[in-house]
Amino acid sequence: MTEHVITSKCDSPLLQAFVDNYLLLVKIAARIVGCRSRAEDVVQDAFFRLRSAPQATLTFKAQLSYLFQIVRNLAIDHYRKQALEQKYTGPEAEGLNVVIQGASPEISHINFSSLEKIAD
Questions:
Q1: Where are the domains positioned within the chain?
Q2: Is there a contact between 76 and 28 (Cβ–Cβ < 8 Å)?
Q3: What is the CB neighbour count within 10 angstroms for residue 78?
Q4: Signal peptide position in this chain (predicted)?
Q5: I need a labelling partner for 35 at 20 to 30 A (CA). Which of 26, 66, 74, 76 fits?
């Protein structure tokens, strides 16, 4: 897996702190969501939130705390959403083996024929 290192100078101190701590932010998010690629998505969402956030004159320590808190909260939200989706949805293959109650072979044949006509 390739590590992406961002080396750029930003006009906003908060965005510069984001760039400087990118890999650490991804590691923190990955611990919460359990997947590095999802963690990168979370950090990207945090970047867009920072871009639209009003510029505040905070101390450097407060900026870092704010940045890490945004990533942490977004990662937790993403984890909760993922857990909820898994709770209410299942793999697509599960639906293939559902038995239709009261379906005779003749009715199944008629239904499949109708679907084939629609598909054509």
A1: 1-90
A2: no
A3: 19
A4: none
A5: 66
- How far lies 37's CA from each of 3, 10, 11, 31, 62, in Å? 12, 25, 28, 12, 28
Hey, what are 90's tokens?
Answer: 């299942």
Give me the count of residues in the chain.
120
Match 């209410």 to its residue by tokens.
88
Does this model's pTM top 0.70? My answer is no
- Say how far apart CA 71 and CA 5 lie, in whole Å: 18
User: Using N-to-C axis directions, what is the helix angle for 60-88 and 22-33, rounded to 10°?
Assistant: 30
Q: What is the rounded distance in angstroms from the CA atom of residue 51 to the CA atom of residue 39? A: 18
Cβ–Cβ < 8 Å for 77, 39: no
